[in-house]
Amino acid sequence: MTAPAAIAPSPQRFAIAPALLPWCALAVLTALCLLLKTELPWLVNFPKEWTLPLATYINAVTDVVVAVVQPGFRALSALLDAPMRGARLALAWLPWPAVMLAVAALALKSSGERLAIFALATLAYILLAGYWPQSMNTLALVLLAVPISIVLGFLLGVLGHARPRWRPVLNGALDLMQTVPAFAYLIPLLLLFGFGPVVGLIASAIYATPPMVRNTMLGLDRVPAAISEAGLMSGCTRRQQFWQVEVPTALPQLLVGFNQTTMAALSMVIVAAIIGGFEDIGWEVLSSMRKAEFGQSILSGLVIALLAILIDRLTIGFARAPETGPTRAMRWMTPRRLVLSLAVALALAVVIRLAAPDATLLPQTGLRMQMGAVNEWLLGLVRDYAWFFNGVRNAVLYCLLLPMRVGISGSATPVMWGFSLPPSALAAYAVLVLAMAVLAARRLGWQAAAAVLAAGLVLYTGFLDLPWPVFILAVALLAGQVGGPRLGLFAVAGFGLILVNGLWPQLVQSLYLCTLAVLLCLLVGGALGTWAAHSDRVSHVLKPICDALQTMPQFVFLIPALMFFKVGEFTALIAIMLYAIVPPIRYVEHGLRHVRADVVEAVEQMGATPLQTLLQAKLPLALPVVMLGLNQTIMAALSMLAIAALVGTRDLGQAVYVALGKADAGMGLIAGLSIAFLAILADRLIQAAVARSAAASH
């Protein structure tokens, strides 16, 4: 009775065949394109004659719309200019002792005496460095942008919670707002509002709104039904139930949204300085970078970093109770004493101003006035060790960046590497790739084998010489099989839009730069995260470093990279890696630390070595968390493209930045949407892969 079942074909083989068949057809198409790309160059380089002038059409529509609505927006700009000036004057009027007292009291109430000491040290550094007025101007922008973002985000979040049918549209809009580079939507803001601090204020408010929307919806969705029913049974009206039951219950999540919104607004200060041009910290960083005054760049960049860390700790301290409970200092600083401390600070400010109304109370010469010698020393250091920095840059450029861009076939030339690969070496490379694909197929399945073959092809041809029909069809096929037909059509539409607008070369530059940055971040960050998961000491050392990297504005990462390696793609790679390396460290550590202990013990009792336990038990179980870290790493790398464009890249970020300089709304919008498309596609692919993996495991 069991013989027929024993010889019956496996149903899994037939289940795999339909999914494998399109990839076989794609492999045949790839071989044909590679054979014909010399005779048909349009397979690699999309002809300019085939592009569509969509940017011109968008500019024509924009000119008409701007001419009609510009007076209203200019009036709104004038209306916002008054509170902006008022906030700047008020903060400039406050003497630094009063500000220090008020911030120390808030820090004491938020997280205890350690944060209070850090707050005093941060403000003392700002004072001694000579950046106090600029810091107050930056705080004025943040203090005005954050309430606008909070109110707007709360209203949109309540709308998304109350109207579930509108949530897909709202989530799509939020995805665009968080993935389109800030430079892209600065262009319409410039056309509508003109140059000035108000444009930076509005840009910061728009950029900082999505976190509040998402956290509002999340907080209200998580209100237990029992609590809502208890409010109704108590006789509450719908308004009373919302404000007195649901909002207080969701308050911790709302405060997390407040924290993230504040940090997002602060991260925009340098971008706002590009179009605002008033004397704040962002303008100081930008000016010193343009003048190659690396001493001032480090001083001013450190001011932004310290302010970001301080504001992050202040807001997150109010957002959540400490895990170990309130400290003695926090218990002592009751709300009544906090109000009293703030009143004392204000009274101190009034007394100081009445006693010395014209005194600045600031140091006569801050540290930034004495940085000439430091600038000379840094320039001398870079000059004396130029052989080392140039060697590192050239090694990475010729061994990693060029092979990713033009492939082994383009790099192994007398001009690039100084030699050419013989046919026997190319044959050995092909055999090696095929052997790895067969091994991957036996161990992990045909999907892994296809990934190995694709990686081998890209490494041989490079991103620049890869035929665009093959690339588009491969990504669309992958998206369709992982996320469904709609995601596949979305991939085709997005890449088609980029192609017909003549942005394919910039797309390829973006892809290879971000791909290399993400791979290196996963390699380095994954190793550090694994180390931290197995060592509490390493975890304690890495935590403040990750906190600092995560809270620093993006522009700050350009300073050390630009100082040591000058302009170029390697500098952009370093800046992208510094910004994107935190997610793999944190998610890998979190995933490995929270693997079920009984599973690990069972594997160890079976005689597995620590390496086998890690590779065969811990990492597979932690894979969903690691994939989320990969998602965040890709998002961070793509978000740095527009910032990295300032140091000489030729990618989509550079297209956005050039469009900003020309006030080309059409090209800026298309290039910005292209980056947003890449981010959304990567996000949906990883989410779908994690969901399929979770469904398969259950």
TrEMBL record:
Bilayer-spanning residue ranges: 20-38, 50-69, 89-108, 114-132, 139-162, 182-208, 261-278, 298-318, 338-356, 415-441, 447-480, 487-504, 510-534, 555-582, 621-647, 659-682
GO cellular component assignments: ATP-binding cassette (ABC) transporter complex
GO biological process: choline transport; glycine betaine transport
Origin: domain of life: Bacteria
Residue ranges of coiled coil: none
Record-linked Gene3D superfamilies: MetI-like
InterPro entries: MetI-like, MetI-like_sf
Pfam families: BPD_transp_1
Single annotated GO MF: carnitine transmembrane transporter activity
Lipid bilayer topology: Multi-pass membrane protein
UniProtKB keywords: Cell membrane, Membrane, Transmembrane, Transmembrane helix, Transport
Chief location category: membrane
The ABC transmembrane type-1 domain, residue ranges: 135-315, 507-686
SUPFAM superfamilies in the record: MetI-like
Subcellular location: Cell membrane
Similarity remark: Belongs to the binding-protein-dependent transport system permease family.
Protein name, UniProt field: Glycine betaine/proline ABC transporter, permease protein
Source species of the chain: Mesorhizobium plurifarium
Lineage: Bacteria, Pseudomonadati, Pseudomonadota, Alphaproteobacteria, Hyphomicrobiales
